[in-house]
Amino acid sequence: MVLTKNLTESIKKHALPFQCPDDLYPLIHAASHAKYVLLGEASHGTSEYYKTRTEITKKLIQENNFNFIAVEGDWPSCYEVNRYVKGYDHTYKNGKEVLEAFNRWPTWMWSNEEVLELIEWLKKYNETQEVKVGFYGLDVYSLWESMEAIIAYLENTNSPHIEKAKKAFECFEPFHRQAEQYAVSAAIYGEDCMNEVLDLLRTMTANKKYYENDTEASLNLLVNSLVTANAEFYYHTMITNDNESWNIRDRHMVQVLDHVSEYIGESAKGIVWEHNTHIGDARATDMYSQGMVNIGQLTREKYNIESVFAVGFGSYKGTVIASTKWGTPYEVMNVPEATPGSFEYYLHQASSGDKFLLFNEDNQHEFSETIGHRAIGVVYHPEYEHMGNYVPSRISQRYNAFIYHETTEALHPITVNHVTV
């Protein structure tokens, strides 16, 4: 009970009310000095998280010279958005069309009205800027799409490396775009394509200057090659070691972040949109005891701690978009009131209404005890969430700041394909 009383009082003492974007100025000011601002979310299907991140992102771009957004999405689909917002590609009539490039489940993560508002704003903003703000995907899942992008570009440029790319692609053809089939073949039977994709990656890396005749072509080709190699490694490992496959994925996302930053140069300042479980330092959770790392930890270790500013998100109750099983249509689900004893529960107990916390040397110790912190994935069962949806966390060590919404609502996907429950 001591924790309850102390934590409730600490929240009352340090929390700042949040009713409109301008209220977040102290948080944005604190984050503006970092090289990377990591903006989390407690689910992949909550409207308020996307909207709030959008407002923070706009301020960081307009007022603090941040020049790219990197998200937990596939590189090929996000690269289409990047070309659209920079005006490089006039194939798409509007942002809604370009978001249809996100056709791999779960499509709702990026093909939604909230992201549409962001990219249309970004396109309009870029029209007034000499240096355009980019939009990039960090994730590792797009094995086949990335290989197709490599081959298409090499064919269009009559590249001498096209046969090597086709050889790598042909190795995967027997698996009919079924990652699970490849994973079993590689992990259980030892039939893999590792040599082919590593050879391709080495070739693309060594010859990247050969492909700099087109805007961002060398970056696109390099990252798609990296995705191909790391996706093979990820699926190779997925069957036998789930924790290590997680690590492969997050290390890959940091690699991509590095490549984008290197491409932009010394002025690179990035805003990362990912789930709390990726951007909140793994060392402040039970992930650490399981040998797992994440972007929050890896970026803090790679750069000095002042260069990374991580913002966690959470809510007390509401609705969310998720599925009951991997690959099935999404549903609009109820998010129950936070479990008693969780961080979200104490935030609610301290006062109703949206609020945020900034952690610093003076108050960090008040939020450093381990406490359950809700995390909802793309697969969710509200009735069982107390059994596995709360991550033991030392909040002030996991994040630099925390934004709390009292009540939230589900995202608004562009493509309607759901069941409301």
TrEMBL record:
Gene3D superfamilies tied to this protein: EreA-like (biosynthetic domain), EreA-like, domain 2
Pfam families: Erythro_esteras
Family annotation (InterPro entries): Emycin_Estase, Hydrolase/PRTase-associated, UCP036794_erythomycin
Domain of life of the source: Bacteria
Name of the protein in question: Erythromycin esterase family protein
Species for this entry: Bacillus suaedaesalsae
